[in-house]
């Protein structure tokens, strides 16, 4: 019974509906007991007004149709990054012949962790009942987003009755982690146990003596690099292109301990650092993998395929710090699938003393350890003397408190 009454009212306020019906009943009684042209005319006008006021709620508002489009700062929906604003365009079509002075639209954007943002604005439909609502979200953090049901509110031209409708337009999108360009990564991996194409002893990617092709001359190239035969044939300066030494395979381990991070912002820096290093591996054509040490750890073996790298980035959208056990126990469950002789970069807020035990475990498994310490953003910088001890052992260690500090730290700047 209540559901039937609710459907009949369709969002109309019972007090206003009762007021309209009361006026109509009084006019009806006036016609029955008084009679005459005046009472009949008044009753006809009130009846028409009542039919319009009540009937408007069963018209266009209940049958509103909408279409939503999502565009990022670069007009691309599939490449939204954290910190970007999203432009939303909602095309609304209100069927029906009754005039509608305005339409209030309420949108609710929900994040996968429960956060939500609400937007409210009004549309003035044209004669065909069509209207467009365009709004912009605040800068969004990484995560999965979805729009809840859209609520539409309208009133008749007299402002007597309010009508509500609800439409469902399923729209979901993902916001990728922030990334920063890393020009160079200095790694100390001279203690690698494997040779061949999986190791390198240089801090940057050096060229070999094997010619790989010919490229256009770039100002500053040495005379010994000039390819004279190609220059003579083409009439323009050409230089020799040499093959580069192969980088070792790199496995990035993101620590997802629940009690390790002081704030969500600190964990976001860690996630963004991992995403930036994955993109750096793509730029250098180096095999890069990812292991997220969360409650349900997931491993992506090192690869150079663009599709697998995008899977890693997409996985970082949903990752959270929810692990309660120790990091070594989580690594033990998956280390059989870790590549031997690879560089294992640990991204964690733990101190150098705590990380030392983990890095010893890495060395014992035949891999080359690196450590990226994520400090608390906005907190007081702490001097960790154990980091210096790790560096004295030949382990590359870096320390950052924000994503902007990462390129300088990896490139040999002051950590």
From TrEMBL:
The keyword Transmembrane applies. The keyword Transmembrane helix applies. It comes from the Bacteria. The lineage of its organism: Bacteria, Bacillati, Bacillota, Bacilli, Bacillales. Pfam families: DUF58 (PF01882). InterPro entries: DUF58. This is DUF58 domain-containing protein. PANTHER family: DUF58 DOMAIN-CONTAINING PROTEIN, SLR1927 PROTEIN-RELATED. Keywords: Membrane, Transmembrane, Transmembrane helix. Residues 214-365 form the DUF58 domain. The chain crosses the membrane at residues 43-61.
